[in-house]
Amino acid sequence: MSPTSIILLILAYFVVLIVISYITGKEDSNEAFFKANKSAPWYLVAFGMIGASLSGVTFISVPGAVEMKQFGYLQVVFGYFFGYLIIAYVLLPIYYKLNLTSIYTYLKDRFGNTSYKTGSIAFLISRTVGAAFRLFLVAKVLQLLIFDAYHIPFTITVVITVALIWLYTFKGGIKTIIFTDTLQTLFMLISVVVTIAFLATALDLNSISEVYSNVKESAMSKVFFTDDINDSQYFIKSFLAGMFISITMTGLDQDMMQKNLTCKNIKEAQKNMISFSVILVFVNILFLALGLLLTQYAQQNGISATKDDLFPTIAMLPEIGIATSAFFLLGLIAAAYSSADSALTSLTTSFCIDIIELDKKPIASQKKVRKKVHVLVSVVLILVIILFDSLFKDVSVIWELFKAAGYTYGPLLGLFAFGILTKAQIKDKYVWLIAIIAPLLSYALNSYSIELLNGYQIGFEILIINGILTFLGLVLIRRQQH
C-alpha cells in the first residue's frame, strides 16, 4: 500500500469513530463522561475490554517475541485469568458498595487523604507511562509506513496520533469509549484472523488442523518453563506475576475499572469480568500462533525483521496483498487506540476527581475545567512519548511495559492489600514516603539480584516484590492500638 492509500484508510476509520462520538456524546455531562450514566451493557463492556487490555503493544510485541520467548507469555496469561477472578469477587464488590467514580476514593475512606492522593498519583504515573508506551509503538509504525515518505518528523507523528484520540473522546468520554472499543476490538480480531489465513496459505497449511499441527510441533510453541528457577520465564514466577499484573493493571487501575463501573450493577460487572477473562486466554493464544507463523514465514523468505518490526514488515510486503495490509493497519490502529483512548479518559477522570476534586468546584465551571484537563493530559502524553523515542530504540515494548508496571503499580498493590487484608490503621502522613522508598528498593534489588540471590534473575515478579515492600512499610507506620 502506498502512504497516500494508508492515510485515506486511517482517515476513513477515524470518520467512523467521530460519527460514533457525535452520536454517543450528545449528552455532554460529567456523569456521562466519567460513568456513562451507569447504563452500559455488560457484554459490550466485556468485548471492548479485550481490545483495551491487549492494545497495540500486544498486537505487535507478542507475535514479535515468539522467536526469542516461545509461548512462555502464555504462562503469564494463565496468571491473568486467576487475577481477574480476584477482581470480580473481591475488588468489584468493594467498588460497587461504595458507589465510587474514582476507585482511589477507597484509600481516602480507609486510611486518609495522603493515602488517597498517593494512590491517585501512582495511577497517574502508571497509566501515563503505559499509555505512552502503547502509543509510542504505534507512532513508530505509522512513522515507518507513512510519515517517513513525506519527511515528516516523529514529533509531528506523535502530535497527530494523540490529537486524533482527543478529537473523538473530548465530549462523550467513557460513554463514547464503550462503543468505540467494541468496534476496535472487532477490527483487531479480524485483522489477526485474516493475517493467519494468508500465512497459512503461504506456508502450504491448507486446513485449520494443519495449522494446529504445525504450531504444536514447532519448538517455538513451548509454553511451560519449569527447569531453571533462575530463568526469568520460570513457570511459578510468570504465573504469579501474571496474576498480580492483572490485579494491579486492571483491578487497581482507574482506566480498566472505570469501564466496569459503567455497568448497571455488581452482577453485570462480574459477568463482564468473567467472560472477558475467558475470551482473553484464547485471544492471546491466537496472537502467539500468529507470531509463530510470522517467524516461520520470515525464515522461509529470508526476511531479517525481528521483535516489534516483524509483524509490520511482513504485513506491508507487496506479495501480502492490499486486503491483508489494509486489515493489518486497521487492526493495529484499533488495538492501539482502544487502549489509548480509555487511558486519556481515565487520566482525565482521576486528575479531575482525585487531584483537583472537581466536585467541590462551582457547578457552572466543572465542565470547562474537565475539558482543560483533557487537553493537558493529551499534551503530557505527547511529551512522554517523545521522551521514550530517545530512550527505547531497539526493545520489545511489551517487556519494557511490564517492567515499568512493576515499579509504578507496586505501591498501589501494597496499599490496597493492606487495606483489604488488615484492619489496622496507619500514620497516613508518611504513606507517600513508603510509596517512594519501596520502588527504589525494588529497583536496587532487581539490578543486583544475580549477585545477591545466587544467580536468581528477577522477572515480572518485581511487581510482587514491590507490593510486599510497600505492605511491610505500611506495617512499620501503623498506629498503635490503645
**Helical proportion, percent range:** over 70%
Query: Biggest sheet: strands, sense, closure?
Result: none
Anisotropy-based shape: globular
Give the integer mean of the pLDDT values: 82
Low-confidence segments, given as residue ranges, are none
Structural class: mainly alpha
Q: Could you spell the SSE succession in H and E letters?
A: HHHHHHHHHHHHHHHHHHHHH
Strand content: under 5%
The count of DSSP E runs of length 2 or more, i.e. the number of strands, is 0
Number of helices: 21
Terminus-to-terminus distance: 73 Å
> What Rg do the Cα atoms give?
22 Å
Question: Could you characterize the architecture of this molecule?
Answer:
With 482 residues, the chain is mainly alpha-helical. It is built from 21 helices and no strands. It is globular, with a radius of gyration of 22 Å.
Set down the secondary structure blueprint:
Elements lengths: L2 H22 L5 H6 L6 H23 L1 H4 L3 H25 L7 H6 L2 H33 L8 H16 L4 H29 L5 H10 L17 H17 L2 H7 L5 H35 L9 H6 L6 H34 L7 H29 L5 H12 L1 H12 L9 H17 L1 H4 L9 H15 L6
Descriptive tags:
single chain; 482 residues; 75% helix; globular
Question: How is this structure best summarized?
Answer:
This protein is mainly α.
